[in-house]
Write a structure and sequence with these properties.
about 290 residues, alpha/beta, 6-stranded mixed beta sheet, about 10% strand, elongated, disordered N terminus
Length: about 290
């Protein structure tokens, strides 16, 4: 039996989100306010909100008290939900990289591992899920050039481990729009960049990956504000999430108006970009423009 830690699709982040959604439904069905629920577990309305969004861990005692408040008395249902609370507190695989992993990025890794569809726009770098080891090392060195060799290796290993989700039995769909500038910027030098472009060319043959390029000729476009990712999950109870990474933190957006804004921007990007069937020819052209092997 695979544990929650080892199964990417059943990681702790999505389990917390599923349990939180279930607790919200139970609370609303009983007409209980968040304030009243918070009082029941000796906490606050904001704590209940964070629990229902899956953004904090769950104490079994708190879940048990809430189930009682919501009128859940059937032993089988209570047992199942309390088991889910225990599993949701298990650390994800990324926990072992805690020494090189900022806390704000740990949440993203859990969401990424649980997503059924990942749509991303990148303007400066090749997306992390599609980077070669050599390219990833060059990117890591840009931000952590003063770190020791062991730390650099762990940061690169973490990035490579993320890519396992694309090769599991039921992988998510990855739909990426990349600015041409990211493909022409020689991160790591011409040889590293050529290897990265060759890998992207191979990726275009992968059924669950769609890659589009925004050419320089497109001029300004819908995502002038910068890179972002939209995550969609297989369970209809889980809302889409927009992820925007900054230098020392990240934004996680799940309000309907924000989701709609970024969804429209992504759709426009996909229209303005070259169609996916043109991507191999574009990559081959950029490879030809590089210095000879």
């Amino acid at each position: 039996m695979v544990s929650a830690e080892e199964s990417p699709a059943a990681g702790p982040t999505v389990l917390r989100m599923l349990l939180g959604a279930q607790l919200r439904r139970l609370r609303e069905s009983r007409g209980v306010s968040r304030e009243s629920a918070g009082w029941e577990i000796r906490s606050s309305e904001s704590k209940i909100s964070r629990m229902e969004l899956g953004r904090v861990g769950f104490k079994e005692r708190d879940v048990a008290d809430l189930l009682t408040l919501y009128g859940v008395t059937a032993e089988q249902e209570r047992t199942a939900l309390l088991k889910l609370a225990r599993e949701a507190n298990n650390p994800g695989w990324w926990h072992r990289y805690g020494d090189v992993l900022p806390s704000w990025f740990q949440s993203y890794l859990g969401l990424e591992a649980a997503a059924a569809l990942i749509r991303s726009y990148e303007v400066q770098f090749v997306p992390g899920l599609l980077q070669t080891r050599e390219y990833a090392r060059a990117v890591v060195l840009l931000g952590h050039g003063g770190a020791g060799a062991a730390e650099i290796d762990r940061r690169v290993d973490l990035r490579m481990r993320r890519q396992d989700l694309l090769h599991r039995p039921h992988p998510p769909r990855l739909w990426v729009v990349v600015d041409e500038a990211a493909l022409r910027r020689p991160i790591g030098g011409p040889q590293v960049m050529r290897g990265q472009l060759d890998a992207l060319l191979e990726t275009t043959r992968t059924p669950n990956v769609r890659l589009q390029v925004i050419p320089f000729a497109a001029g300004g476009h819908a995502a002038a504000g910068g890179a972002f990712t939209i995550l969609r999950f297989g369970d209809q109870d889980l809302p889409d999430i927009v992820y925007i990474e900054q230098l020392t933190s990240a934004l996680y957006l799940d309000k309907r108006e924000d989701l709609d804004f970024y969804a429209v921007a992504m759709e426009r990007l996909c229209v303005e970009a070259e169609p996916p069937e043109r991507t191999p020819a574009i990559l081959e052209g950029i490879i030809a423009d590089l210095a000879p092997r």
